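_Backbone structure tokens_
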Amino acid sequence: MKNVLFIIVLVLTALFAKAALPDEGMWIPMLIEKYNIKLMQEKGFKLTAEDIYSVNKACMKDAVVQFGGGCTGELISADGLLITNHHCGYGRIQALSTLENDYLTNGFWAMSHEEELRCPGLFVTFLKRMEDVTDKVLKGVTDNMDEIKRQQTIESNTEEIGKNAIEGTGFTSSIRPFYMGNQYFLLIYETFTDIRLVGAPPSAIGKFGGETDNWVWPRHTGDFSLFRIYANKENKPAQFSKDNQPYRPLYYFPISLKGVNEGDFTMVFGYPGSTSEYAPSYYIDMVKNYINPKRIDINTRKIEIMESAMNSDPLIRLQYSAKKSGIANGWKKWIGENQGLERMNTIGKKQEYEKKLTEWVNADETRKTKYGNILPRYKELYSELKDYSLVSSYTGDAFFSSGAEAVGFARYIVAFAGLYESDPGTEKMDIARNELINTAKGFFKNYNAETDKKLFEAVMTLYGENLDLKWQAPEYIKIKNACKGDFRSYAGKIYEKTIFTDEGKFIAFVNSFSKGSLAKIQKDPFYRLAKSTGDFLTANVRGELDRISSEIQRLNKDYMTLQMEFDKERVYYPDANSTLRIAYGTVQGYLSTDAIWFKHYSTLKGIMEKDNPEIYDYNVPDKLKQLYKNRDYGRYTQDGEVPVCFIANNHTTGGNSGSPVINADGHLIGINFDRAWEGVASDMAFNPDQSRNISLDIRYALFIIDKYADAGYLLKEMTIIE
């Protein structure tokens, strides 16, 4: 094992030393000095690697946070002021909204610290340091170990390393695999939980263009929101308290008003979620031709139902805005992803590459013994995996991810009922009851029974049409047979009777839960369907899904090594895995289709050109129109116009939303929020000609804060470079 690791280290060192196409890749901050800084400086970067990542002095990493576990945010003042995307804060803004105080529609601006709104459950995480612990993680691991023993050894080593690393610190640790398990890094984090909403533009600005413009360039979306981190008097993480004070960061980003021009250096610093750049053709074929089409189909119908309901009632719009937005974001991405993979012939190119790999492997007996079975075994495993993966994803889409909502909600009482059977009348039961009631209040705040009836009818129908009978839960089959597929009539009968569509009935039922309640709940069709579906997945899907996925992961490790040995001239960056990364490149327009060239920035003029009061997503606020009419732009212009968004060729993915976009001087110039439609497939195949990240120009955010919201006091906290 030590010899193998030594060879891998040599390969990695040789690879990174080669000339690269630096605009592709998501790079490890700790290794920037060794592998990337020279290339970055050649592209115009004026600072050092230690200005980006250091454990000895304050640096950029100390101003970048993982926001809410799924996005990125950055500090922009010495008083803990944080900026991220509007869509990253969307769920929190929606949760704080009511019809009387609709912050999604109307926006929100705190004019003092006292007016800032607490965001229960929201947290931000700082990376304190990272360390290569590959040798420690793989201690005792041998090449001839079976997979179960291997994983047990790695898990045992990982637990010990993580525990020792944070003992007595108050920090948390995580050990993540890189290069498909060929390398492991320890990451030490500090998490803050007292986060408060400071400001958010109305949806007519922060979500301008809605789903129509999503994943499309040019964009005109003011996609930003402001929060503040609070800490105790020692500047340490603490639960919410009126005595807490604004967090004093080690570092925060200066903001540049100098703007961006074609060819300028840009760097994105954030937490990209997941990519599969080195996966075999069988994986891409499964996703593109088997999984995505059916998931697009069911989510198309869910979106149609939600949009129709939202257009009929302001309360329903508020209740379903975050749910619909979350569904639509993935749905539209899958559509663009499939189109991009088809346009680039990604599967065909992968197959050609795999043919060359096979010929190279078979030309040497040692290589053939070591690697000869990888691609044939991949073919077998993905042939098995596709059904299990589809069933798991599709069942979730139907019942547990804003599908049949009452069914999804019913699963929360399954564990509660099980606890009552095994341990009634205990303190544990009281805690579980309170948690369930709190969950119910959150659920019903954003629930409309009539909308759910339509969702139920649609997903019940599609579930039966798109999954073979053997993959359908027994209770579903029973319901389908009993109502002869007439799910509309069935819903009309049951929605009035069940406790899962009425907040008062449900909470009263939970509060008076008794032995007789067990018998009653087991007669409820939504409870039975939720339990049957969950039990079916556990008994028939998840075990095999885990088994096949585990074997694929073991193959991935060897496949990554094979690719590195086969092509020593290629530069390999690790796939994204929700850890802090750097992407860098230049501001660039691109050729979209024949004769259509997109320039690198959009302006306020484009917002006015899209204005349509008849369409919710294009109804420009009157005050913004007045500012435009009066040309009251302040100092936030370029060539006489207010810039709104710009594009560059940084390699980004989900999780990079909210990431700071930094110029050659280390100043904040934008907030990353999207990718251009033509390059959405960059999670599996980066297209240098069309892969573009879309960012909000920081000058538009300042213009909105200052001129639109009259919250210019916030700018006094910031360091603004003219």
In short: Residues 281-557 form one domain. Confidence is low (pLDDT under 50) at residues 1-20. The longest helix spans residues 525-566.
